[in-house]
Every structure is written in structure tokens, then in C-alpha cells.
Amino acid sequence: MAKRFEKCQIDVLELAFEESEHLSREKKIDLVRTTGLDMEQIASWFNRKRACKRARESIGDLERTNAELQQALEESREKEAKLQKKLNESKQREAELEAENQSLKHSLMISGGDLQFDSVLGFVNRYR
Description:
Layout: H1 7-19, H2 25-35, H3 39-126
């Protein structure tokens, strides 16, 4: 089973990682002398540290992307609600105009009789 690193060893490795995420052979040899760890342990620690850093960065990227997508979704929902309101208003206006049209047709039939209405329809149909 792998032995846990001591705090002083981790502190030295952390400092070295802050200086450079990738080690030269000379720096590895220096860390071997300073920490008492072997090269494989140091190389493995640096690999794990880089992997953890990439994972944190990926999580941050995903969280930013998620926030952007949530914002876009909210904007789309607001736009959809506005369009739905416009559609309902247009349908209501169409129904009102249709009712007015029916009323006018009815008035024409009552006031002028069928012949007069037919002549109006003929006039309208000529200019369509």
C-alpha cells in the first residue's frame, strides 16, 4: 500500500508546482534530495496534480457554459411569451374583424335587399 506523503514533502512539491507544472530532470533530482521521495513518486504526484487542475478548469468551463445556456433559455422563454401574447392579440383582433364583417354583411342585406348586396359583391369581386 502506498505511503502518504508528509506535510513538509507536500509543501515542497506544491512550491515546485507553482514554479512550473512540468519538471526538468535537474529539478526532479533536486526534489528527490529535498523530499526523500523517489523520482517515480514525484512524477506521479505532478501528474495527479496536473490532472486535478485540468479537472477543476473543466468544471469551471462547464459551469460557465451552463450559466450561458440558462440565460439563453430564459431569454428564449421570454421571447416565446411575448410572441404568444402577440399571437393571441392578433387572433382576438381577427375575431373582432370577422364579427364586424358579418355585422356589416347583415346590415347590407337588411337595408338593400339581396340584389343590392349581390351588386356590392360583384363590385368587390371585380377588384380582387
